[in-house]
Amino acid sequence: MISVKNLTKCFGDMVAVDGLSFDIRPGEVVGFLGPNGAGKSTTMKMLTGFLAPSEGEIRIADRAMQDGSRVIRQHIGYLPEGAPAYGDMTTYQFLRFIAQVRGLKGRDSERRIEEVVAQVELAEVLNKPIENLSKGFKRRVGLAQAILHDPDILILDEPTDGLDPNQKHQVRRLIQNLAKDKIVIVSTHILEEVTAVCNRVMIIAEGKLLFDNTPEALLQKSRYYRAVTLHMSYSADISGLAEIDGVDDMEVDQKTGRVTLFPHDNTEILHLVTEHIQLRKLPVDTLFVEQGRLDEVFREITQRETAK
Amino acid sequence: MSMVSVVFRRELASFFATPVAYVFVTIFLVMSGVFAFFIGNLYERGQADLLPFFNFHPWLYLFLVPAIAMRSWSEERKSGTIELLMTLPISTFEALLGKFLAAWSVLGLSLILTFPMWLTVNYLGDPDNGIIIAAYLGSWLMAGAFLAIGMCMSALTKNQVIAFILAVVVCFLFVVSGSGIVLDAFKGWAPSLVIDTIASFSFLTHFESLAKGVIALNDVGYFLILMGTWLYASLLIIEQKKAD
Ligand SMILES: Nc1ncnc2c1ncn2[C@@H]1O[C@H](COP(=O)(O)OP(=O)(O)OP(=O)(O)O)[C@@H](O)[C@H]1O
Ligand SMILES: [Mg+2]
């Protein structure tokens, strides 16, 4: 369990993190979202004990960070931003070093390294110096290092940055497959990643926590949540669509000719729309329910803050 | 303690994985030989001891030790690995000690590899080997003091070149503070207490008797205290600046 109260970090007179408070319980997979320079990495650095907060308190596993930092660090696996690693070591030597630091010995150590190497598919670069690896492989080495001791708390700063689509998928699966009683915190700029792997979203901008809820709740903030989009094979009278009970608004995309109907109060309108279409015999060739557009919600939340 | 040895082994491996250790040892061997034979006239003196060899050590260390110390923290900070290191269950002190001992071992290895010099004087004459061993120990101690200064300068900056230059300057001050030129500049107007204090800070003054094989408590203590002080300063600096 992570408990953060009024966490603040100043660099000179610049406030990078501004009074964050939150609790994270085992089983929660938290996605940190926010524009560049929002304070995500700075928050993670404080959670891992690398940076001392200017103000506020962090408690992890019932210990205050400043007293129990060494014990706390044993519970945490951390992938710092940019996945730093000792370039002169080979992947295997590096993982061996981490295993020793983590107190893994002999057979145990070998077994864990084998498992992790399989999990993030490092076998082909095992004996290459890390400085010669491609960006994606470096990131994977960083990831392997973070999960090597099977930590209760996993803090990953942009784990999928620079990975190919297959590897992104792999990493998301890996996070989903972690035991259900762990805490995972990931920061990312890929919004879909959050709905794919997280069960809680925090949006930070200019150091402040602006949103803290489930990905579903984030989607619901979108105008497009449960909106119905349709396309017709030839032009027909669509004015009736906007009149349907429960439809608040209608928009026509000039370029694609798609018509989007926005529901009143996030209610289901699909059945009403299909009824109408059948009644009027409209020549609809495409019809789907929107999931909600995250980029739009993200923009709205974070720009409202920066505009102030 | 076990963490110190884990860091120690990693650092040592890194010295030999990059050519740093090989280059260092080679240059040390060549230079110490050149100095001893051509400038110190080890051979022509006709005396069976290694005094000319040891007398050049402060000047050799002045440039070579900062070169081996400069990367210790600068590189960690530049590449960001310090963030990894400091979030592993290793204390700053353990990391510091591990790094120091690894570099100090490379310096020790360089000294040991000068053994042909020792064989030569033993072949040519009949030196007092106790004195020579004491001088070797003294030289290694002094190298440790140079190293502690170099590592502290490396903790100050991300830039290895700046770390090197700073270390050379600070080491230079410690070396020359006991030399005739500096002391002469103070003679005549400064009280003798000041002059004695300046001289007592000098590597040269303290190494002089060690090189002659006299292991006095105050000389050994001087180098040990110097090491401790500079390492402690590094510890404070790293804690302070690690995230900058
Ligand atoms: N060591 C430092 N000294 C001064 N300012 C810093 C330092 N570290 C971070 N900052 C500032 O703090 C702010 C927050 O930075 P942080 O790295 O936490 O952002 P972020 O949310 O991780 O951004 P990104 O998405 O680009 O990774 C930035 O304005 C940054 O310039
Ligand atoms: Mg960041």
From TrEMBL, chain A:
All copies of domain ABC transporter, residue ranges: 2-231
Give the Pfam families listed for this entry.
ABC_tran
A GO molecular function annotation here is:
ATP binding
- What is the superkingdom listed in this entry's lineage? Bacteria
Report keywords, A-Z: ATP-binding, Nucleotide-binding, Transport
Q: Does the keyword Transmembrane helix apply?
A: no
The family annotation for this protein states: Belongs to the ABC transporter superfamily.
The name on file for this protein is: ABC transporter ATP-binding protein
Automatic annotation (TrEMBL), chain B:
Residue intervals passing through the bilayer: 12-38, 58-74, 95-119, 131-149, 161-183, 220-238
The residues the entry assigns to the signal sequence are: none
**Location in the cell:** Cell membrane
The membrane topology noted for this protein in its Swiss-Prot or TrEMBL record is: Multi-pass membrane protein
Listed A to Z, the keywords are: Cell membrane, Membrane, Transmembrane, Transmembrane helix
Q: Say yes or no: keyword Cell membrane present.
A: yes
Database matches in InterPro entries:
ABC-2_transporter_component (IPR051449)
Give a single Pfam family match.
Answer: ABC2_membrane_2
By what name is this protein known? ABC transporter permease
Q: What organism does the record attribute this protein to? A: Fluctibacter halophilus
